[in-house]
Design a protein that fits this description.
The chain has helices at 47-59, 120-134, and strands at 9-17, 22-28, 38-40, 62-76, 80-93, 104-111. It is of the alpha+beta class. It has a 4-stranded mixed β-sheet, sandwiched between helices. The protein has a two-stranded antiparallel sheet with strand order 2-6. The chain is built from 2 helices and 6 strands, in the order βββαβββα. It starts with 8 loop residues before the first strand and ends with a helix. It has one domain (9-134): Nucleoside Triphosphate Pyrophosphohydrolase (Alpha-Beta Complex), CATH 3.90.79.10.
Length: 137
């Protein structure tokens, strides 16, 4: 059984902000665009546990102050059918580094006014954050 293909997949993504008001982004191997870190929910874990685990696995950091930004339903030919939960969280501790180099090529902090080329879903999550916390439309 394949997430998103044989049944609807559930995933969490995090708009992680540090003390300099920079957002943490990650770029998967072979892709031009950047996205917010996160991934799929595993059986037996809550959405918050999923987000914390994925951020630790992908970026080697801990997060706190987690708040739901929104959710969306995604349909793509390659990924299938997913329900995605976007969260905002504060960087808490740890040295940012790629833990899954076989999956990801780069990880970095970016200022909100100088974002790289983003995935549509990552861009939407950051826009939700800006709208909710800064009133930016």
């Amino acid at each position: 059984m394949i997430h998103g293909k044989d049944f609807v997949g559930l995933c969490c993504w995090g708009v992680i902000i540090n003390e300099n008001n920079e957002v943490l982004l990650i770029r998967k191997r072979g892709r031009e665009f950047w996205e917010t870190p996160g991934g799929k929910l595993e059986v037996g874990e809550t959405l918050i546990e999923c987000l914390k685990r994925e951020i630790q696995e992908e970026a080697n950091i801990k997060i706190s102050g987690i708040h739901l930004l929104g959710m969306e339903e995604m349909f793509t030919s390659s990924w299938g059918h997913w329900i995605s939960f976007n969260y905002f969280a504060h960087y808490e501790s740890g040295e940012v580094k790629l833990n899954e180099e076989e999956k990801h090529e780069e990880i970095a902090w970016f200022t909100l006014d100088k974002l790289p080329q983003m995935s549509p879903y990552g861009k939407k999550a950051i826009e939700e954050y800006e709208r909710k916390y800064f009133g930016i439309e």
